Every structure is written in structure tokens, then in C-alpha cells.
Amino acid sequence: MSAERFEKKETIDLRKKYIGPSCKIFFSHDPIKIVGAKGQYMYDEKGQHYLDCINNVAHGKHTCTSVYTQSTLKESSQNSNSIFLFSVGHCHPDVVKAGRLQATLPDKLAVCYFVNSGSEANDLALRLARQYTGHKDIITLENAYHGHVSSLIDISPYKFHQLSDTEQNQFVHVASSPDVYRGKHRADHPDPASAYADEVKDIINKAHKKGGKIAAFIAESLQSCGGQVIPPVGYFQQVAQHVREAGGVFIADEVQVGFGRVGSHFWAFQLQGEDFVPDIVTMGKPIGNGHPMSCVVTTKEVAEAFMSSGMEYFNTFGGNPVSCAIGLAVLDVIEKEDLQGNALRVGQYLTSLLEKQKEKHLLIGDIRGRGLFVGVELVRDRLKLTPATAEAQEVIYRLKEQHILLSADGPHRNVLKFKPPMCFTTEDAELVVEKIDVILTELEEALDLKLNNTLAVENESNKRKVSLTLLIIKKYFFNESVHDFAVTGFHFDFISLQFLREAAD
Ligand SMILES: Cc1ncc(COP(=O)(O)O)c(C=O)c1O
Fold first, then answer.
1. pLDDT 10s digits, 240-296
2. Which residue puts its alpha carbon closest to atom 7 of ligand 1?
3. Which Pfam families does the entry link to (predicted)?
4. Burial class (CB in 10 A: 0-12, 13-18, 19+), 96
């Protein structure tokens, strides 16, 4: 039964009938039916192509064949689990893959466990940390997301902020996001790295007073769902020192940001400096370019402590030859096509284009990024940093109409996030920035001119106009939904600014 045989509507109906309703779908009121993909493009059932600015899973490039056929066909006949030693030709893909991955990491990170998803990797990382330290408490960051299994919902404020205090896990402590744009300590602070790290120390002290003991601090090396946050350099070193003094370990989640995406380094934690090495690193999404696999890498000491529990680690699909061969092919493509270099060059170019837009558009509050991991934070007021949430939704909705896929995230859903396949080009960057320029120009005209003009006049009919405009903004921007708009798992109240313009007229 091939998916292409169904009309889009039938696919939607079947999805509604058979798939759990909480499974998220992008642009839920008018989802895109993707039937193919190549490079940085995806194709719908009508053959229209979409420039993909957000898919960091199809890391190297979208591919249905090239990466996989290189590697999988010959191995698939031998696919099985990791309790057997499989030889393909003269190599064992799991150990070769482990060796190749290790070569990209500091020497201390020497032991690999292959698993099947980012969630599995982070769950195993928590087990390793707790077994090694004998402690239970975990410190996580505000707005963090680390995966969908129970143990990770517990440490993902991005998800659990919807729960009441009593439903939250008492072993979990939340530290402020080290966001120097909107966070507690901003770029004008003399030493934001120490200020944020000191807060982690306070959390440790408070936990100790209540009898808690810290097993681990976990953070994405750059926060993604949390709003493309780049922690100040030196923050991780200081946090690691506080956490290790308390007997805990540092877990760096590289599920979104690893594998050369940041351009200057292969791993995003390396942006903090050579003197910083986490105790555990977790990997996922790009590791298999869409094929489900992931990995946890740790030190010999942590791995030996895990072994000493006497409990063997068994994982049916983890480290199977097909997945590892695919993982090896992904590493080959990254290397041969210099995708890390491309991320650096194109990422810098994209950031410079966006910086110019910031000079032009008041709606742009901040541009931040490394390589092909870039955030554009939209604000209605650059001093108050009022999040421009509806405007961000308008941008991504209007881009979708023009066949460009971008998303908005962060706690206020006002950060446009770029994390495209790593083959993204300078032409792609120019195209998307050009379109954003037009949309922001129109948005600013609609908001400023309409509001300022109406606010400036004093007669009665115009006063009514003012109240109507403000009422519409209040009603639709903050309370009621016009379109149910799903973006990275959240449903937004969304109003087309076109509608606002028409209503205000
Ligand atoms: C930072 C981070 N860690 C872990 C995960 C979980 O990965 P998976 O969905 O493969 O289980 C995600 C998924 O979005 C993620 O963004």
C-alpha cells in the first residue's frame, strides 16, 4: 500500500482515524503532504518544492537513496542485535562507527553505547550518571527539552511547565536558561557566565540542605527548543566544576546541535573552549540522517561504574549493523562534502544577511547563532523585549505559502529558528532572507502605520477605530484562536495580520 495512492485529504482522514491525536503535525490546519525530498528541498504531492530551513534530522541532505544505498543493502541481510559480532566484509560496523565517532571527540570520551533515539540516549545518560554517582537529583535548564520518555519529560520544562508543582518530579531542579538576550543576566552584565553558573551552585546548596544529592547537570550545548540560546563562554566550565564538586556529572545533549552544525567545531560543547569536556555526551537526530539511531559516549570511569552494577546492558536494535553502516555513511558524507565547512561559511553569510535586516526592521530584537544554527528573536519593543509571537507565526505561515519551511520556538514562540540541512547554500540564505524582509516590511507597515494613525486622531469615530483595533489585537493575539497552528508540538493562537488589517479598516 503506497502513500502516494491516497489523496492528501484521505491521508489526513486516515491519520485522524488511526494515529493518536496528540501526535504533532506541522501547519495542522493545512498540512503539507511530503512525497519526496532531495538536498535541501522537500516535494509535495503536486510536485511543488519547499526549501527546508528547519530539518536538522536530514543533516547532510534529504535523501531517499544515496546515503542509505551506500551502506544498508549489503548489511540488511545480516541485521540483528548487538549480542552477536557481525562482520560485513572485514569490518564490524558498530565498532568502526564507535572508533570514527570517538576520533571526533576529546580522548577522555572513550566509550560508546549505541541506541535508537535521542530519548533513549538521554534516558541511558541519566542511568549512567545515577549509577556512577550513587546520587539521584538532576539539574536541568529552564525551557529545556530532552525527550519524550517519562524520565525525560521529568527533566524537560519545555513540556512539564504545563504540569502542577505536585506532578513535577521532586528530584529535578531547574536553573535559569543562560540567555544573555532575554534572561536574568544579559549581555550588559559584566560576567553573565559566572552569574548563571553561581545560580547552579545555589541550587546545589539548596538541594543539599534538603538532603538531595546531585547526580547530573544536563543541558543542550546550545538550547534549541528553548529559543536558540547560546550560553556565554565559560558557563559550562564553571557549572561542571560546581556539579563535580557536588559529586555529579555533566551531560551535554548534542541531539540537535552536533555533527558539525556549528561550523567551527564538530560538537557544539567545544564552543565553550578546549578546557571543557563533558562526562557524558548524547547524540541523535543527524547521526543517521533520518534513520533511527543514536549514541551515548562517556568516560571509562562512568562506563566501568555502570558495569559494576552487575546488570548487563541489552538493547535489541542498538548498534545493529545496518544502523551503524548508515551512521558511517553519514560521517563519510559530512567529511567528503565538507559540510561542516559549508555550515561555517553559509551560516556566517546567513547571519550577516540577517544582521542587515536587524538594522532595517524594528521587529528584529536579536540575531544569534553559530554555523547553521541561527535564531532570530522578534519583539514588538526593543526595550521591553515584548515578544512578537503573532508576528513570528505570521512570518512562518507566509513563508510556507511561498514554499519555504521555517519554525518559531522558544518560551514565547517568537524566535525564528534556522537549522537547515547542512547542504544549505548562500543562494538559499539570500532567498529566505529576501522573503522575510518583504514580510517584515508589510507587518511593520500594518502594525505601526495602522496603530499610530488611529491613535493619533481624536474624533469620536476614530476613537472607536482605536478601541476596535486594540480589541482585535487583545482578542486574537492573546486569547482566541483563529487558526489552530501547530509548531513544534505547540498549538498557537494565530491571526493573519491580513485579517487584522481588514478588521481595522
Ligand atoms: C535536544 C533534544 N534531545 C533529545 C531529543 C529526543 O530525541 P528523539 O525525538 O529522537 O527521542 C530531542 C528531540 O527533539 C531534542 O531536541
1. 999 999 999 999 999 999 999 999 999 999 999 999 999 999 999 999 999 999 999
2. 118
3. Aminotran_3
4. middle
Cα distance between residue 32 and residue 495, in whole Å: 20
Q: Does any ligand 1 atom lie closer than 6 A to the CB of residue 220?
A: yes
**Residue spans of the chain under pLDDT 70:** 1-4, 61, 63-92, 448-505
φ, ψ of residue 212 in degrees (nearest 5): -80, 160
DSSP 409-440: ETTTT-EEEE---TT--HHHHHHHHHHHHHHH
Decide if 155 contacts 146 (C-beta within 8 A): yes
The sign of the torsion formed by the CA atoms of 69, 74, 78, 81 equals negative
Cβ contact 408:487 at 8 Å: yes
The atom number, within ligand 1, closest to the CA of 292 reads: 10
Residues 327, 314: Cα–Cα separation, whole Å: 20
Locate 132 and state its grid cell.
556512577
Is the C-beta atom of 256 inside 6 A of ligand 1? yes
pLDDT the model gives residue 386: 97
pTM: 0.86
Which domains occur in the chain, in start order?
3-62+339-504 (3.90.1150.10), 118-283 (3.40.640.10)
pLDDT in tens, 432-487: 999 999 999 999 999 863 444 434 433 434 443 433 344 344 434 443 332 323 23
CA proximity to 398, closest of 439, 437, 445, 453: 439
Is the CB of 257 within 6 Å of ligand 1? Answer: no
Task: Return the residue matching grid coordinates 484521505.
Answer: 10
Closest CA relative to residue 102, chosen from 296, 326, 390: 296
Q: Tell whether ligand 1 has an atom less than 6 A from the beta carbon of residue 327.
A: no
- For residue 389 and ligand 1, the question of a CB distance below 6 A is answered with no
Q: Is residue 297 within 8 Å of 60, Cβ to Cβ?
A: no
For 252, counting Cβ atoms within 10 Å of its Cβ (0-12 exposed, 13-18 middle, 19+ buried), the class is: buried
How far from chain centre, in Å, is Cα 436?
21
Q: Which of 146, 251, 417 to mutate to test the pocket of ligand 1 (most atoms within 8 A of CB)?
A: 146
Place of cell 486516515: 14
CA distance 398 to 483: 13
Cβ–Cβ contacts within 10 Å for residue 322, how many? 25
DSSP 90-149: TB-HHHHHHHHHHTTS-TT--EEEEESSHHHHHHHHHHHHHHHH---EEEEETT----SS
The one-letter code for the residue type at 448 is D
Distance CA 22, CA 35 (A): 23
Ligand 1 pocket mutation, candidates 126, 221, 280, 285, criterion most atoms within 8 A of CB: 285
Give the dihedral sign, CA 21/24/28/34: negative
Alpha helices in 321-425 (DSSP H): 321-336, 339-360, 389-401
